[in-house]
Design goal:
mainly alpha
């Protein structure tokens, strides 16, 4: 039997993965694929806002306009935008890694043990790479 392509699978409007379904069946993979893709598109669409802010700051700096308070506010806004951009960049890498795991059939399985992460955990955190127990142990070791 041919493998169903989760990327082209159309899901019912209110579909949510259920524990009663076979784990990481095409429907579940399609569901998480669509969520991850939407998150990726949302992140990448915001990148132009950061670039525009940086460009505007450079233009204003080169023009030498504004008083000290304006310049400080602008610098603070620029720093905040750059931090958010860095955070988004890290998140984008995690999303791309999750999409890769979907592609190679390792999504939903722990990178440590290979055990099922579980639908409940993936619904709460689609980027999860470890079971709850493994995550707790990891966090306890790294306090």
């Amino acid at each position: 039997m041919a493998k169903q392509d989760y990327k082209k699978l159309e899901l019912p409007a209110k579909y949510v993965p259920k524990k009663s379904e076979p784990y990481m069946c095409p429907e579940q993979k399609a569901y998480f694929y669509q969520i991850l893709l939407a998150q990726k598109q949302e992140l990448t669409s915001g990148n132009t806002d950061v670039l525009n802010t940086v460009r505007n700051a450079e233009v204003n700096e080169n023009a030498g306009g504004g008083d000290e308070a304006d310049n400080a506010s602008q610098e603070q806004a620029l720093t905040m935008n750059l931090r958010m951009s860095e955070r988004d960049s890290k998140l984008l890498k995690k999303i791309n890694a999750a999409l890769d795991r979907l592609e190679n059939d390792t999504f939903g399985y722990s990178i440590i043990s290979g055990d099922e992460i579980g639908i409940s955990r993936l619904l709460a955190r689609p980027l999860a790479t470890m079971t709850t127990e493994e995550q707790e142990e990891y966090e306890a070791r790294n306090k």
